[in-house]
Description:
Radius of gyration: 31 Å
Strand content: over 45%
Number of helices: 2
Structural class: mainly beta
Distance between the termini: 113 Å
CATH topology of the largest domain: Jelly Rolls
Bound molecules: calcium ion
Number of strands: 29
Amino acid sequence: MRYLLILIGLSFFSFGCGENGGGNEPGAGTNPKLSIGHVTLFEGQTNSNFNFQVNLSESSEELVTVDFATMEISAGENTDFIPQSGTLIFDPEVTNQTISIEVVGDEWKENEEEFKVVLSNPTNATISNAEGIGTIRDEDTQLFIDEDGYSTPLSYPGMTLVWNDEFNGTTLDPACWTREQGNHGWGNNEWQNYTDREENAYLTDGKLIIEAKEENFGGSNYTSARLITKDKKSFAFGRIDVRAILPEGQGVWPAIWMLGSNFSTVGWPACGEIDIMELIGHQPSTVHGTAHWGPQGQTFSFNEGEHYDLPSSEKFSDKYHVFSIIWENDKIEWYVNDNKFFSLTPNQVSPSYPFNAEFFFILNIAVGGNWPGYPDNTTQFPQQMIVDYIRVFQ
Ligand SMILES: [Ca+2]
Ligand SMILES: [Ca+2]
Ligand SMILES: [Ca+2]
C-alpha cells in the first residue's frame, strides 16, 4: 500500500515536468526581440552618417514599431552630432532597419566622443538591447584654442622685459628649454613617463602645448613632458606672467613653478621652491600658490600656500588665465588675473629664507601622485596645458 502511494507520487511529479516543457513551443505568444548595434567610425572633415543597424530576432506577420532618440554622452548635440528622434517601422517579414545619424565633421583635434541611440516603446516586439553607442574617433591634429580669457601687457611702467618666450617658433628653443626625462615617480609616486618627444611638448599657432597621453611607453601607462630652464634661464626677482589654459580631470596635475638654481648642490627643499600655479585635476576651478623650503632631504618640507577659486561654474580649462608672481627682496606675491591671493615674507619662513636668489622655471603635467590621486575612468586623455607666453619683467 505504502509502495503504491510512492509510485503515484512519482508519476504525478514527472507528468508535471512534462507539461512545463510543452509550454515553450516557438511562436506561442512570444514577441520577436529588437536589438540595436554599436557604431565606431572616424569623424572625418565633413559631415557623415553613422548607420545603426536595428534587428528583429525573427520576422513577424504583424507590423513592428519602435521609437528611437539620440542622447549625448561625451559628444555634444549639434556640435558633434545632429540630434534625431522618430519611429522605426518594420513591415511584415522585414527584420532589419537602419537609423542614420549625422555626425559633424571638423578639423579640430578632440578626444574620442560618444553618443547613443536609445530604443523605446516597442509594439509587437520586445527590446533585448536598447542602446546603440556611437563612438566618434578623431583623426585631427590641430588643437582648437579659444583665444578668450585674461591677458596682461608686454610692458609695465618702470620695468623692463628681461626675458620672454611667446612660443611663436616652430620648435621649442633649445637655448632656453630642456626636456627633462624620467619615470621614477619624482618623489610623489607619479605615474607619467616624461619624454623628450615632440608629441608631448610642441609649438603650434604661437602656443606651447604640453600634452599628457595615455599610452604604454618605457614601462609607463602615461607620457607627458617636463620642460626646465635650468642652467639656461634663471632669475632673481621680477614680475613673472604666464598665460595658460590648464588641463583637468582626476589625477591630472599641471604646474608652473620654479626651483632654486643651486638645486644640484644644496638639494631639495633647501634650494627653495616657488609654485606659481598648481592645479589638481578633480578641482578644475581652483589653483594653488605655494612655497617650499627647509633642510635638504627632509621628507617633511616646510611650506606655506593659498588657493584661488574661480566661480564654480568656471574652470581653468575653459579659457586663458594669467598666473603671476611679483617677487622682490624678502617678499613674493602670488596673483591670478592681477588678483593677489597669497604673499610670503621671511617672518613666515624658518630656519632660513632661500628666496633671495636665482631660480629656474619648470612647466609640466604630472599624471597621478600622492596629492592629486590617480586617474580613473572619468579622466579623459590626452590632456593639454596650453601656454601662450612666459614673461619676466625687472
Ligand atoms: Ca567632434
Ligand atoms: Ca575633430
Ligand atoms: Ca604666444
